[in-house]
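3.2 Worked example (two chains)
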Amino acid sequence: MGIIKFVAIICLISSYFIITLPGLIFFAISPQKTRKVLNKIVSIYSKIVLKIVNAKIESNLADKKYSHKLIVSNHLSYIDIMLLSSQVPSSFVTSIEMKNTPVLGQITTLAGCLFVERRNKKKIKNEIKDIEEALSAGLNVIVFPEATSTNGEQVLHFKRSLFQAAVNTQTQVVPVTINYAAINGEPLSLSNRDLVCWYGDMDFAPHLWKICQQKEILVQIEFAKDLKADDDSAKLRDLAFEVISGNYNPIN
């Protein structure tokens, strides 16, 4: 069964390349409109992939409709992207390192992601401007302010820089908490977390293969109340961290 799931996902990735490749041309003409279309396509594909791996989502999203929001979340795995995209079509902010990663780099580029190089203070201002333009165009933008995926033992301290985009555009921030609750009916723990958490120097393809062999992944996603944009990005960061870490169940 695992091989069928794995092949199905690879076929989906291939078909996604074919469908969205023309988007690279339209980016030069109308980047934000192109992103909006790509976001919807990614959302559809995400729902299909999650169905294939039998990811069961418990969410309090209900009938909320988000637009022009900066959505911030804790980060445990590349699956987080599909989980959040399936809930709210959005443009994701990810690292230059991800762009340069084989397969994932191509996927993120054709998904309309915004890339940042957090370690370069000279470039980060221009990259924040890119995020501001997307927000001003009415798009939802998702940020993982831990700046890396983790092993799930705790929510890492949030980076401040990208919250400035919400301040500059007076965009409300939506704190979202992802909890992987169980795998195959067993509560997530230190012994089985690596079946879903993707961190450190783990390779993508072998990890995806492991995921395809699981019978069920139960995920809980909590959308908290919007935070009003503040004139202080550090205060906004701290409020978001307090909400998300407060709703997170550490893996132990």
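3.2.1 Second chain
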Amino acid sequence: MLVDTLDRDWRVKTFNEFSGVNRPAAGRRPWSVRSESRYSIRMNPLDEVATKLERCPYPLVVLKPLVESQKAPAILRTIDGAVCAWVFRHYRDVARSNVKLFTPEVTRINLEPMVRGQSGNWRGELVPEDVRDLIARHYSPDMSPFDGAALFWLARNRIFLDLELASEERVMALKYEDLVADPERTLIRLYRHAGIAFPGPRIAEGIHPRSIGLGRELELSAEIERACEHLWSDLNAAYESRLAVT
């Protein structure tokens, strides 16, 4: 949603997951929504990405390197002038959306690399031992897909704290719930962070809060619920702390 919103600005060039700065797994059909490449997409080497971006004649270039979140510090070091927006959303709504969007196999695809410590798979990179242990205690191929999606949310968003991105000036935490509830205010803050003038309220057309709370009735295992709620509180604390000084 955020990338699509920014794409309405003629000054912005966007690169989504399926774009010229990414590559699918070897032997997979590129950019096929229903193929396994959907789960295996990776960003090209950062030096190649940096060179490609330098040639873009746009005031603002936007990447969505979602599967490379664990490489945020390297991205910021390698790409001149780079800043980051870390978007986070309530784990229950994310779990509901994840199960609705992806195939039933997504739980296995996402969690097995973490359990097995597969460093060659982006999902297994930088997973802390306490999170790996939690996933291992609950994981099975036939587990609740909502539990699986919540654990995946936990593992990916712990990266924000573990890499101390909350204290990095070039990183802006962006709360999904605030974006959809007050898009103009949030986008003004985002454009300021990117160093480019806000184009006006028209860019926020179509953003709405109707998806907030749709996952509130999900049943999650008690231990998973506690872990996710603890991280949700920590993310919000980091977010509110930065809001207070901007």
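3.3 Remarks
The beta strands are 12-15, 22-23, 42-43, 60-63, 84-88, 171-175.
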